[in-house]
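Response to reviewer comment R2.3. The reviewers asked that we include at least one raw input/output pair. We reproduce the pair for S-adenosyl-l-methionine hydroxide adenosyltransferase here without editing.
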Amino acid sequence: MTLITFTSDFGLSDHYVAQCKARILAEHPEAHIIDISHQIRPFDLAHLAHTVGSVFQDFPEGTIHLIGGEASAASSQDYLLAEVEKHFFVVPDSGILSLISERIPGHAIKLSIKKNAYREVPALVGKLAKGASPESLGEVTESFKQYVKRKSRATKKEISGHVIHVDRYGNLITNIEKVDFDILSRERKYVIYFGREQAHTVQKSINEVDPGDVFVVFTDGEKMMLGINQGNGSQLLGLEYDSPVTIQFED
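Raw output as returned:
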């Protein structure tokens, strides 16, 4: 059975999520729909991309990922169907594809939408899950919006990155990759600078530090995360989205 994931900034207090699911099920009653999140901050493309990009690879290959809501619409009524890393994405032409994965396809299908994307796109997702070919749902296009993801900068002496997401616990996830840190920190001392604080150790788990103490770990997605055990790191450290984080290595 083909899985469908659904992510949006619709929230849970209105009927929008149920309405989209109803339109998928009207086309394909056997569809299996899994919610990733509907608590994306309104209009926050970065939050949306981080949420979907962090989890889509955990689903089986061939999963269909529907992204909807104002965060992804960006005033565009054009919707795309694209295969990325052996997964199918149905998304607005807002640049979100390039923020979810660096493996941008050379082409996509511009979905055939006559009047209302919110009504027609879920039905097209149902058809795709039911076995319709992507080409039957629209026209091939090589022109769609893309962004360049900001990456950390690594030299022999330092890694410069920034906060790309603050989770609901106030933990600060950065774009500093574990692979870069492991190479540069091998048999070298280092200092991690963030706000007015600094750390000299990366823990394997948050529980290695006492409640109220600062921690630095790597996430399952192998990105550096820092915060305060049982505290809101964003508030207590005075850091937020885009705050700089720097690691300096001793010679």
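The chain has two domains: 3-141, 153-249. Residues 151 and 236 are 26 Å apart (CA to CA). Further pairs are available on request from the corresponding author.
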